[in-house]
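ingest -> validate -> predict -> emit
validate: passed (alphabet ok, no gaps, 361 aa)
predict: started
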Amino acid sequence: MIVSVDIYDLRLPLKVPYGNSLGILREFNTFLTVLTDEDGRVGMGEGTPAQPGYQWETPESIWGFVESKASEVLGKSAEEAHALLMGSKNEFPLACTSYLTALEELRQAPVLTMPQEGVRLPLVGIVNPPQGSSLESHLEQRLREGFTTLKVKVGFAVDEDIRKVQKIQAVVGDAAKLRLDANQAYTPEEALRFVNSVKPDNIELLEQPFAARAWEPMRELASRSPLPLMLDESIFNEEDVRRTGQDGCAQFIKFKLMKSASAVSMQQQMEMARGYGIKVLIGNGVSSDLGCYHESLIAARCGVAFAGEQNGYLKPVCPLFREPLGFADGHICIPAGYKRELDPDVLQKYSREQRHLTRMP
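emit:
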């Protein structure tokens, strides 16, 4: 039985503003759920929304959902609570993530268990030059840090995007692959001009050129593009994966825990994608330590080979965990025997709201 529920509405300021065609983030608005059962086991989960336009849920709707479900979960078994919340995951995926992953920790779901040897996975390096830094020096710094895949935001103005990518290609050469993310910003004409104007030599893929679930434009572009395509914002559930595979809309899908809502569901969706011959990527750059920890466990357990995007833990000014997740030579590093513990001082400092519900066993 779940005997206590703690929920937090956190504002975690970032070291450097994080921007794309949807807008600029200066802080993570992280919603955290901590569940404790009668045996003293603790399960944790988070949901962190990106900029408006990425998901339909808002910070207000997420907090309202998280707050309303706390009393419903209290006193139930992990299995009962999980079944209850799975019914809401398609309508409220991000809000449900904070509960479902916490419950899956309590249930010791294999996909969320730490490998005996720990975890060491390559990450993408974000091309985001700080103010006063040249693009060339920034790229050289990313390469020195050990990144072999670099993520470049496009989708601002197609001609400028083309020139930007060409400039980066000239600097990077074959030292790293480029992952290009348009964040839903192109028209079909702009996307076609873009994919035919950059050399495909070291470009790994172009991500989400059109609005979410623009299936027909994606199918048409995929049939004509010399660059591999990936969907992100279009993929929230099994039906989205099925549509992508059946219509041939993309060669890659990027999965994020906050969209799948459940680690177990995410594993099932990745297996479905692979069944269609679609390559699988994982990772959320807008996520705190806990989400990145969970996605790294999933990636390790599911054998994801491509550089991950679960680099959000590197962006806030201070870690959420008492012992920070490691980073070395372009990799996230979680040692064997790692014990993830929240830092109570960070929770206290950055909580805008928090609630604690308890029930005697």
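The chain has two domains: 2-110+343-358, 119-334.
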